[in-house]
Structures are given as C-alpha cells and as structure tokens.
Automatic annotation (TrEMBL):
GO terms for biological process: GDP-L-fucose salvage. This is GHMP kinase N-terminal domain-containing protein. Residues 6-91 form the GHMP kinase N-terminal domain. Keywords: ATP-binding, Kinase, Nucleotide-binding, Transferase. The lineage of its organism: unclassified sequences, metagenomes, ecological metagenomes. Belongs to the GHMP kinase family. GO terms for molecular function: ATP binding; fucokinase activity. Residues 162-239 form the GHMP kinase C-terminal domain. InterPro entries: GHMP_Kinase-Related, GHMP_kinase_C_dom, GHMP_kinase_C_sf, GHMP_kinase_N_dom, HddA/FKP, Ribosomal_Su5_D2-typ_SF.
C-alpha cells in the first residue's frame, strides 16, 4: 500500500485482505499542505470507516489517539495533536495538551446565537501561497526554549478567547486574533512572508480587526475577523484572492452510510461493500 496514512491505518485496525479506498475533497489539496488539517482529517476518517467495516465502534478519543500514533509516532511528522482531536470531536472545544501526553477536551458552552454571530464575522481567503509545513514546524520545534515566552502568551490568549465566548463577548475576538498572530509570527522565520504581510495589512486597512494564517503558516488560508459592515470592503481589498465561505461543524468524523447486507462472498459470490464517511474537510467512500 503506497499511501502512508492509509497503509498504517489498515495495520492498526487489522485489515489484511484486498481493499479499495477512494477519497474526495472540497478544498484544494496539494503536497505542500494548506493549513486545514487535511492529512489528519484523512487519518481520522479512514480509521473510522475501517472500524465501521469491521463492525467495531471507535470513540472520538480512540480515533484521535490512533491518528496521532500514525502521523507522529509512526510517520514522524513534526506536528501537534490539535488537528486530530478537533477533527475527531468536532464542535466548539477548548483543548488542553498536557505534559504527560494526556489531552483534555472540554466543550465551550455558549448560546447558538453567539456561534452564529461569530461565524458571520469570520472570513476565509485562500492565499494561493504553497509551503512545506514540515520545515516551518521543525524550526519552530528547535526554537521552543527560545520561544517559551511567546508560547505562554499564546496559551493565555487561548484562555481569554474561551472566556469571551462563554460570556458572549465576540467583539473581543478580533483583537485577540491580531495579538496572537503577532506572537505566532515570531515562532519561526517562515511563518509569514512579504505577500502574507501585505494581504493582512490590506485586510486590516479595509476593516478587519484581526486574523491569522491557519496551520503552520507560510501560506494556505488567511482567516479574518471582520464586522459585517466592512466585509464588502475587505472583499474588494483582497479581490485577487479566493474567498472560501464556511460554517462551523458541530460534529466530528461521522459514518453516514453502511451497507449492512449479508456479504455475497458468503454465498460464493463477490461484491464490494461500501462505507461513506464525513469529516471536516471531505466526504469519502471506501469500497471493500
């Protein structure tokens, strides 16, 4: 099996017979990565579907933990655990990654109206800038001790963002994102570049109060907090970029279809079994 994530998922679940996996994405997928956690989404979704095929229920915690095992422990990707956990759990969560490798996932409780209002004030643009995230993340890891003060500030900002959501104060989100972006830029030399800085400056001048490049940085998607009355101006300022409207996903990876008929192979015939599953970035089908 050539696909590294699918190969390791098959090993973990314990499937050795012939199998075909087909996946499709609604986002631009490339080898350079785009900062939306697409590789972790794939790992979570494939694990979920393979377990469903075997008739085994896998919890969100198990899917997240085993996806981390594949990407970090086995494939040695220089990444964190946030993509795997948010993809597995879905929804609004405050996720705490502890020094003993445990992970606490706590829902952020706030009215639906608050989430809807926040969603309406967020804009997402694809910069068209490709980057290899591993080089950025490796430099960031090497500079961990040097960047401890900046990292501590980012932790505090995450806590502040949660508190503002709980108290329905979304007007503070833009400024928190802006402050966080300035700290994030200091973590590695290629987190930002001249083009990204220009895009962000144009957006701020047009009315955005804050934002950040998603993922490791260096390219991919630019997230902005913009009050509705300024959004048309921001679109004009960034008209050379592709806007990607989105909505918050209340659920994590889900099995949406299982063909549970008795396999014809038991009657001496052959037929493919199909399982469809959804995660935050893609809908995929797997034929077995």
């Amino acid at each position: 099996v050539q696909h590294n994530i699918i190969r390791e998922a098959l090993k973990i679940v314990g499937i050795e017979k012939a199998i075909e996996v087909v996946y499709m994405g609604d986002i631009p997928l490339g080898s350079a990565g785009i900062g939306l956690g697409s590789s972790s989404s794939l790992a979570i979704g494939v694990l979920n579907a393979l377990y469903a095929y075997k008739g085994v229920h896998a919890s969100a915690e198990q899917l997240a933990r085993e996806s981390c095992q594949i990407e970090i422990d086995i494939l040695s990707e220089p990444i964190g655990k946030q993509d795997q956990y948010i993809c597995a759990y879905g929804g609004f969560n405050f996720i705490q990654f502890n020094s003993d490798d445990t992970v606490f996932v706590d829902p952020v409780i706030c009215p639906h109206k608050t989430k809807e209002s926040l969603n309406n004030k967020l804009m997402l643009f694809y910069t068209g800038v490709e980057r290899v995230s591993s080089s950025i993340l490796q430099e960031q890891e090497q500079k961990t001790q040097v960047n401890l003060e900046h990292l501590d500030k980012l932790v505090i900002l995450a806590q502040e963002l949660k508190e503002n959501l709980i108290h329905n104060n979304i007007e503070a989100i833009g400024a928190i994102l802006d402050e966080g972006w300035h700290y994030k830029r200091k973590l590695a030399s290629k987190v930002s570049n001249t083009r990204i800085d220009e895009y962000y400056a144009l957006a701020r001048k047009a009315g955005a109060t804050g934002g950040k490049i998603l993922g490791a940085g260096g390219g991919g998607f630019l997230l902005l907090y913009v009050d509705e009355k300024y959004q048309s101006e921001v679109r004009k300022a960034l008209s050379h970029l592709v806007e990607s409207p989105f909505e918050f996903e209340p659920q994590g990876s889900k099995i949406i279809y299982v063909n549970d008929q008795v396999p014809l192979s038991q009657m001496g015939l052959k037929r493919k079994k199909k399982i469809s599953f959804r995660d935050k970035n893609k809908t995929k089908e797997m034929s077995i």
